[in-house]
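Morning - guanosine-5',3'-tetraphosphate inputs below, output right after.
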Amino acid sequence: MEQLTSANASSDPTDPSSSSDVATEAARRRTFAIISHPDAGKTTLTEKFLLYAGAVLQAGAVKARAGTRHARSDWMEMEQQRGISITSAVMQFTYRDHVVNLLDTPGHRDFSEDTYRVLAAADAAVMVLDVAKGIETQTRKLFEVCRARHLPILTFLNKYDRPGRDPIELMDEIEQQIDLRATPVTWPVGIPGDFRGVVDRRNGSFIRYARTAHGTTAGSEETVDPHRAETEEGDAWRRAIDECALLEGVGADLDIPSFLAGDSSPLFVGSALTNFGVRHLLDAIVDMAPSPTARLGTDGAYRPVGSAFSGFVFKKQANMDPGHRDHVAFVRVCSGRFERSMSVTHEPTGKPFTTKYAATMFGASRSTVDEAYPGDILGLVNAGDLRIGDTLYAGKPVAYPPIPSFPPELFATAHARDNSRHKQFRRGLEQLEHEGVIQVLRDPEGDPTPVLGAVGAMQFEVASHRLEHEFGARTDIEPAPYKAIRITDAPTAKRLRSSAGIRVLVRRDGTLVALFESDYRLTRLRNDNPAWCLEPLETAI
Ligand code: G4P
């Protein structure tokens, strides 16, 4: 870490803060997200991290049980009704003198675009796999996003307290399916369902776990020397030792440089429910995951963490607080020291932006923040003018690359039920588009019915619900039969317009797009007219 600190020190003479203080604070930060298939145990693990860090006294606070405190991000009525987390929350806690920023990601696959944006703000990810299931579809998709961003990934084989698959088989599956070399740091003693503890392969010690009642308090661990382990655990210990020798033989040892490059993944086994292995994983996040480092701007230059303040908006959320109709822009701090009330520049417009209402978020609750450092997440309240991807900075100008959106896979038409609410309907759609809830495609020739694009069907439901409840515009959203979308240009658009089953629309950024009711039709057109402009949309992954 010392190396990073000095490499990140600023030489910017306009920098008002002490760059070495900032670099020291940055080196204490770990900012990461958990990725998993629904039900693999992300919420349970999040809750246990908070428990081990002392941020909550009893597990159950995140996944709120009746009568316990809510720290969960389900502030939206719909989320509460369905018991799913749609919007992402940020949780900050300290652990071993480090500041850990845990970015929560929505579990439902329909919101993977939101997850993608959250991952743009993370420096590392923890991939949680259910030991009985291994790599599942959603894990694979999210992993691809991490790979595209070269995010270092720690792997946690969860649910070891119950029957599951052989961990060696799972290592093979990880390697074969997602081309990630798993390097076990801890190795189980006992089989899934009869889990006794782990061997820490770094020093050969045996950590034996003891259950606590329902895992609501931190589990007790006992470090046992190998001799005693052999006497007390017998075959389970000998088997674990044989397997560790095998792992060493195949070179599956912890390899920090390849982990940081996103090519190998330190693997941990445990059970979030019973707290087995949670502390090891949290220690590894602090010890192995990278602290924030210099970030690349669009001009090709890296801005050191010790430079003046800069950050980018990775998420927007409206009406988090039902008492105040507000817009919160979540900003990942990339460099410098943020101080409340400081005036920064909004890069896209060049206008000043006053950050009087900055807050840190913990689930749905927020508290005012006075200062923040690289790796931290700010919730800027009353930030209606900020868009996803926008850069804010002080001192020397910088622009961070935009966050690409996913090409929509599903389409629907949207009609305001009541014509007199048309203004509210338009304003609502604009707002939802800015927040990245849905994409809105409009007819450049004047048809007032927009076409909405989404990655998952539930995005339409959220849009419809919010249009009605926040903007007072009841809306009929009906599936549209399009199967494919391509970027086009004016000459090609002119030809396409006369064809049935094809629609030419325009995106918010002015790009012309063509929608096709049949993939086959698109393929034929491309083959027959190679000179036509029918480009795939820039893809996020
Ligand atoms: P998610 O956020 O990834 O969707 O998963 P979540 O933590 O909600 O866990 C999904 C289910 O798996 C929950 O059970 C949870 O208790 C269980 N679970 C999580 N980790 C472990 C583990 O290490 N071992 C075992 N045996 N189970 C685990 P549920 O019945 O759906 O919910 P609940 O009634 O327990 O809250």
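Note: Residues 1-16, 60-88 have pLDDT under 50 and may be disordered.

O.
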